[in-house]
Amino acid sequence: MGEKFTIAIVDDDAAIRRLLNFYMARAGYETVECATGEEARQMLSTSPWDLAILDRRLPDMDGVVLAHELRSKREMRELLARIRAGKRIVELQKELIEANKRLELLSITDGLTRLYNHRYFQDELLRAFEESVRYDRPLSLAIIDIDFFKKVNDTYGHAVGDEVLKSVSKVFRESIRATDLVARYGGEEFAVMMPETELDDAMTFAEKIRSLVESTVAETQAGPLQVTVSIGVSAAPRTKARSAKELVVHADKALYRAKKAGRNRVEAEKRRDVNRVTRPEFDNVPVGTH
Q1: 195 phi and psi, to 5 degrees?
Q2: Average pLDDT over the chain, rounded to whole?
Q3: Distance of CA 216 to the CA centre of its chain
Q4: Angle at 35 between CA 33 and CA 39, to 5 degrees
Q5: What is the C-alpha separation between 242 and 53, in angstroms, rounded?
Q6: Deepest in the core among 19, 45, 213, 241, taking most CB within 10 A?
Q7: Cα–chain-centroid distance for residue 18?
Q8: Kind of pairing between the strands at 30-34 and 6-10
Q9: Is 188 a catalytic site residue?
């Protein structure tokens, strides 16, 4: 008959209990028997049952009263069971939301440095630049490059190079403001976007970063290593950059001047417009107007 179905027989007459038990068994049902209301209370509160047949006149109580009592307890058990099931559903939904958040974070994070990745930074810079143009608000950008990083890899190996990248990235994470955004831009190159920041303030921040990196010793498997960084800084709308692409090129040119001037220094963009740009990741981005 499929799933077991249990019938409780509650009657003080043993003959009636035997007769009902006989017919229920022939029909394929399992039964439990009780002779009094109190016995039924105790047994049916702990043993599973599906349906109860009650004598109206039990020796210690009215069968109708017992029926109401048993129904009330069963409804409460069902309610608690539903609450438990609902609680589990809510827990699973929360776990799913957290898992999705972790996946989303992984998709926009550089696995080695735990900074944002290039693609996410590029998208955010485009958005921030559009807001800067629309509301005529300042936006600064710093491109940072670890000096002589190739020499570190060639001398100590890429594993040590990775440890240096992690150490420098930690300096960035601990130094930026909540409104800034720092990313690994590629290889040993990093980028920091600073909304609502004029060029002079961005230069001050960049110098702070340069000094912190210079004074921080990277603990590696090859022993403590000290590295320096060169930084190029640009800002909008000060230079009238017409696109995020041009803002990056300004910072790139300033970074080149910092390296050419001896490295371990900060350089700012020059006051001029840039009409020709070379950053390929922005080639298909429409040029905005100021």
Answers
A1: -65, 155
A2: 86
A3: 30
A4: 85
A5: 86
A6: 241
A7: 64
A8: parallel
A9: yes
Q: 50 with 6: CB under 8 angstroms?
A: yes
| Nearest of 149, 145, 161 to residue 259 by alpha carbon | 145
Domain map of the chain by residue range? 6-83, 118-282
Task: Confirm if 210 and 266 have CB atoms less than 8 A apart.
Answer: yes
pTM, to two decimals = 0.63
Residue 38 has pLDDT above 60, yes or no: yes
Please give the CATH superfamily to which domain 118-282 belongs: Reverse transcriptase/Diguanylate cyclase domain (3.30.70.270)
| Range name among 79-83, 126-130, 142-146, 278-282 with the lowest pLDDT average | 278-282
pLDDT of residue 272: 54
pLDDT band at 3 (very low <50, low <70, confident <90, very high): low
Q: Which of 245, 231, 244, 239 is nearest to 273 (CA)?
A: 239
Place of tokens 């300033």: 254
Helix (H) / strand (E) element for 142: namely strand 139-146
Length of the chain: 290
Query: Are the beta carbons of 54 and 10 closer than 8 angstroms?
Result: yes
Per annotation, catalytic residue among 38, 98, 124, 188: 188
Amino acid type, 47? S
pLDDT for res 147:
97
Distance between CA 130 and CA 289 in Å, rounded?
Answer: 10
Q: How far apart are the C-alpha atoms of 290 and 279, rounded to whole Å?
A: 20
Topology, domain 6-83: Rossmann fold (3.40.50)
Band (42; pLDDT cuts 50, 70, 90): confident
In the three-class reduction of DSSP (H, G, I as helix; E, B as strand; rest coil), residue 254 is classed as: helix
